[in-house]
Design a protein that fits this description.
heterodimer, A: mainly alpha, B: 186 residues, alpha+beta, 5-stranded antiparallel β-sheet, 5-stranded mixed β-sheet, 12 strands, 26% helix
Chain lengths: 447, 186
């Protein structure tokens, strides 16, 4: 799990008996409030505490938290608490089906696209009731998985956040490290199986075998359980983990490109050109775009997702001759390896897109909380920042993301040949240009 | 806005809408100070998203009803969501829905126009397409009256809530039954 120096304070926190329990209680309380207000509160996304908290605070901050804290969110997620309770009460603890294990990353990716499609087509994030129904649906699935399958199978193989969470956590600043000397000869594996001090790893990891921070939830169970003190937490430079992947997976690269496509679509869907675009596609197909809205938007979503995938595919073909006298790598391997280089830009794109809501609309959250009690401000609260300031920050974040992507790509290229990265660098800069255009157009349209 | 300013704005909150709905609004003194006309609005007690309502504005000057004016109504959520802000706009104002009789007019570039209903009475047909607290602003030349109203949204679908309860109950019940039948497996 890496050889970065350990962080004693982080170790202390992760070993604490209050962690993650204390934070889980807080997120459980917040989740209950979100569901209740989404279902029974004002039917206006800006004035509903549930939607305001979910879509203007939690969702925009999630990518940043994954970068700064790894998958700590997964440890304090209210569903983790719920799964433990359900399993203690009625859980059968069956092993996950083999197909779920085999296709888990693809299932996660497909569910992420499905949720995006549902949101884009039926505006779930803009409708408190729809948000409430979505949360109830996820809650029911979580309860079902907890009742039948062992530990947090849902989190590992199904949770739609898991796809980008894994990629962003790889770029994250917290990871666990193990001491091979101390682990040698340990047959009991209490880190994975659990002890009286704490349950085993919720996602079935054996820390010495874990290559990166993608799947670890940083719940601290392994630290609490290891009698030899062989596991410690370390703070590492952001994106450093992406350049060290020894067994690159195609599913990770596909997920990173998919997120880029989804973010691009969400950015373009906020522009004036969006409505004529999908109306035009409907007319082109001979369909009424309002009646066939799901189909037309589905096709557009597919196009936006396929564009970066196709660009990366072409880059993998173009990079082959550029390898020169070096051993040439197969396109699929090149795609998987260099695919990690787009993760920082995907992260930056998703975070920058959420910044508009975070820096202008999240001011609604305290007012929406008071609105539950019928207390309203006299006038519309001023946004935290002006539109121009928000867009300037968005552009800076995107530029930083692209720079990090190029840096990661060059690091990956060291293992092959740096020239092989050039086509991927072109893709990264093209996606950056498209995202910057969308942000600039948005600013122009909002005046 | 810093934390102290937010705290101060909370202390100044006032739940006016409940008082304002269902009867003529005593906004005349405030509006008279801002313009030449005395404005009073009559708002139905219950306003629901997607349902057309008639809003009456009474306009007087020096105690007498005034006819043949261009009266305008703009509706803006008190703190709108991104989705509200992206709604189709009426020249800079947020269009929360207009009924056919209250179309946009030249005299009301940012809002909908009222029609004469009687001496000094103007009717606005309004179909809100959002819910929650909405500020209705009536404008007659330089006179202005703002009335906060609460627009009710649809309650949650009972069938969906019932389906959730039944589904979770069935899953938990099945798992509990199986665990009792096969305790070693658990």
């Amino acid at each position: 799990m890496g050889d970065a120096p350990g962080s004693p304070r982080l170790d202390k926190l992760l070993r604490s008996r209050s962690y993650p329990r204390l934070f889980q209680w807080m997120t459980v309380a917040a989740f209950a409030a979100i569901v209740l207000t989404a279902l029974f509160g004002p039917n206006n996304a800006g004035q509903n505490f549930g939607t305001a908290l979910t879509w203007t605070l939690w969702w925009p901050l999630l990518p940043l938290s994954l970068l700064l804290l790894g998958r700590t969110w997964c440890a304090v997620c209210p569903f983790a608490w719920l799964m433990n309770r359900v399993q203690k009460a009625v859980g059968l603890r069956l092993p996950a089906p083999a197909a779920l294990r085999r296709f888990g990353p693809w299932i996660i990716g497909a569910l992420f696209v499905l949720i995006t499609f549902v949101d884009e087509t039926w505006a779930v994030s803009g409708d408190p009731r729809a948000t409430g129904y979505l949360l109830l649906a996820v809650l029911a699935i979580v309860v079902a998985f907890a009742a039948f399958f062992d530990r947090q199978t849902f989190c590992r193989d199904v949770c739609f956040i898991g796809g980008f969470a894994a990629n962003y956590a790889r770029a994250g600043m917290i990871r666990l490290r193990t001491s091979p000397d101390r682990c040698a000869g340990c047959a009991a594996q209490p880190c994975r199986e659990g002890t009286q001090d704490a349950p085993g790893c919720p996602v079935f990891l054996f820390p010495p075998d874990v290559e990166d921070a993608a799947t670890c939830h940083l719940c601290g169970n392994c630290l609490k359980n290891c009698p030899r003190g062989a596991i410690t937490a370390a703070i590492v430079p952001p994106t450093s983990g992406l350049g060290e992947i020894r067994r690159p997976l195609l599913s990770d690269a596909v997920m990173a490109a998919t997120i880029m496509g989804v973010v691009l679509m969400e950015q373009f869907s906020m522009l004036r050109l969006w409505k004529p675009l999908w109306e035009g596609i409907g007319a082109l197909l001979g369909l009424d775009p309002y009646v066939w809205r799901p189909l037309v938007l589905g096709l557009l979503l597919a196009a936006f997702i396929l564009a970066p995938l196709a660009a990366l595919g072409l880059a993998s073909l173009a990079s082959r001759p550029l390898a020169g006298r070096e051993p040439r790598i197969a396109p699929a391997r090149s795609f998987a390896a260099f695919g990690y280089s787009v993760v920082p830009l995907a992260l930056a794109g998703q975070f920058a897109h959420g910044l508009a809501k975070l820096l202008t609309q999240s001011r609604n959250v305290p007012y929406a909380l008071l609105a539950i009690a019928g207390r309203f401000p006299e006038s519309t609260p001023a946004p935290w920042l002006s539109n121009s300031a928000v867009f300037a920050i968005e552009m800076a974040v995107l530029a930083l993301g692209a720079a990090a992507s190029l840096y990661v790509g060059f690091r990956i290229g060291r293992r092959f040949t740096r020239a092989a990265f050039l086509p991927y660098a072109f893709v990264i800069l093209s996606v950056l240009a498209a995202e910057l255009y969308a942000v600039a157009a948005m600013l122009h349209e909002m005046g | 806005m810093n934390a102290a300013a937010i705290l101060l704005s909370f202390l100044a909150l006032s739940p006016r809408a409940a008082e304002a709905q269902g009867r003529p609004i005593a906004g005349a003194a405030e509006s008279a100070a801002k313009g030449a006309y005395e404005l009073k609005a009559q708002i139905p007690p219950a306003i629901r998203k997607g349902v057309v309502v008639g809003l009456i504005l009474r306009v007087r000057k020096e105690g007498r009803p005034v006819d043949d004016l261009v009266c305008c109504l703009a509706a803006l959520p008190l703190f709108p969501s991104v989705e509200d802000a992206m709604e189709a706009k009426v020249s800079g104002g947020i269009d929360l829905g207009t009924a056919p009789r209250s179309a946009v007019r030249t005299g009301c570039p940012d809002s909908i126009a009222g029609t004469m209903k009687g001496p000094g009475q103007y009717e606005f047909m309004w179909e809100p397409d959002t819910a929650g607290r909405v500020n209705l602003t009536f404008t007659v030349e330089t006179s202005r009256l703002t009335v906060p109203v609460d627009v009710a949204g649809a309650p949650p679908n009972p069938a969906i809530l019932a389906a959730f309860v039944v589904l979770v109950g069935a899953v938990v019940g099945t798992a509990a039954f199986l665990r009792r039948r096969h305790p070693r497996q658990a």
